[in-house]
Design brief:
Elements: H1 2-28, E1 39-43, E2 49-50, H2 53-58, E3 64-73, E4 76-78, E5 82-86, E6 96-98, E7 106-108, E8 113-117, E9 120-122, E10 125-128, E11 132-134, E12 137-146, E13 149-153, E14 157-159, E15 164-173, E16 176-180, E17 184-186, E18 190-193, E19 196-198, E20 201-204, E21 208-210, E22 213-217, E23 220-222, E24 225-226, E25 235-237, E26 240-244, E27 247-249, E28 252-253, E29 260-262, E30 265-267, E31 277-278, E32 285-287
Parallel strand pairs: 3-5, 3-6, 4-7, 5-8, 6-9, 7-11, 8-12, 9-12, 10-13, 11-14, 12-15, 13-16, 14-17, 15-18, 15-19, 16-20, 17-21, 18-22, 19-23, 20-24, 21-25, 22-26, 23-27, 24-28, 25-29, 26-30, 27-31, 29-32
Antiparallel strand pairs: 1-2, 1-3
């Protein structure tokens, strides 16, 4: 009888020790950041997976490639050289970066060289560069940037002085700024190829404001609007602008330059029927 009771007590003590050890190990093991399970970002170099884009950026080394799946919410600061690609799958759907109307979606730091491709960037809201604020060297390919809102300038993208921007096959639609550049506000060099600026709005420069060097080729600027007494329904440029195989049409303005309001150097700009800036309201071009 005494031996049986003693055995039971020793078994109970062993069980308590095992439970205590298990709890201690659980506390010592680091846990992943909180996530709703809708976002997955994988670093192809390390094979590590993260529940948010910011966590993946923070865990990456310069030159790494990150692959985004699903819906990633909130803002991200990219402060190192990275390639960030989106992949659409049956399980995760379209790769989306969403600011949820609360924050800028992406900020590219001054020293960073970054490539974005295959991403849907939406829902950004801040004073400047609601979708993307670029202070570094940024290339965006085969992506959609839509429904972002800046209180001042650059609804979709703000490209600041000394920064460099390249857009290739990018659709910028439904973005707005309560100041200038409904889609793109650029004070640094920019190259735009095969892209579409549609249904963007601002006080001036309904789609684009250019204050540096910009070359636009194989692109469309259509159905944008500068509201109130603003200028440049499609484009407002006071830098150097080159248009090649590009149409600026169907844009509107309350002031002057329904298609384009321009000063500075203009190359390849022809206004009116038969030109590449045509069918805008109330006029196609206004030159200072």
């Amino acid at each position: 009888m005494h031996r049986t009771v003693g055995a039971l007590l020793r078994a109970k003590a062993s069980l308590v020790s095992l439970v205590s050890l298990t709890l201690l190990v659980a506390l010592m093991v680091p846990t992943a950041a909180a996530s709703d399970g809708s976002c997955r970002v994988r670093n192809l170099g390390t094979s590590m997976a993260y529940p948010s884009l910011q966590a993946a950026v923070d865990g990456a080394s310069a030159g790494d490639r990150l692959v985004v799946k699903g819906l990633c919410r909130g803002g991200t600061v990219v402060d190192r050289d990275l390639d960030i690609s989106g992949v659409r799958t049956a399980r995760w759907g379209r790769p989306v970066l969403d600011g949820e109307r609360k924050a800028r979606v992406l900020k590219i730091a001054r020293a960073a060289t970054v490539t974005l491709r295959g991403l849907n960037i939406r829902g950004g809201h801040i004073n400047y560069g609601a979708g993307i604020m670029n202070r570094g060297t940024l290339t965006v390919k085969e992506s959609r940037i839509r429904d972002n809102r800046a209180e001042e300038a650059g609804g979709a993208i703000a490209n600041v002085r000394l920064a460099r921007l390249t857009l290739r096959k990018v659709a910028l639609r439904g973005n707005s700024a309560f100041g200038n550049g409904g889609a793109l506000w650029s004070l640094g060099p920019a190259a735009v190829r095969g892209s579409r600026f549609v249904a963007n709005r601002a006080i001036s420069g309904g789609a684009i404001v250019n204050g540096s060097r910009m070359a636009i080729s194989g692109s469309l600027v259509r159905g944008n609007k500068a509201i109130g007494n603003g200028i440049g329904g499609g484009i407002w440029t006071f830098g150097s602008l080159t248009l090649r195989d590009t149409r600026v049409t169907g844009n509107r303005v309350g002031g002057q330059g329904g298609g384009l309001h321009g000063s500075g150097k203009l190359v390849g700009v022809t206004c009116g029927p038969g030109g590449n800036v045509y069918g805008n309201t109330p006029d196609d071009c206004y030159f200072e």
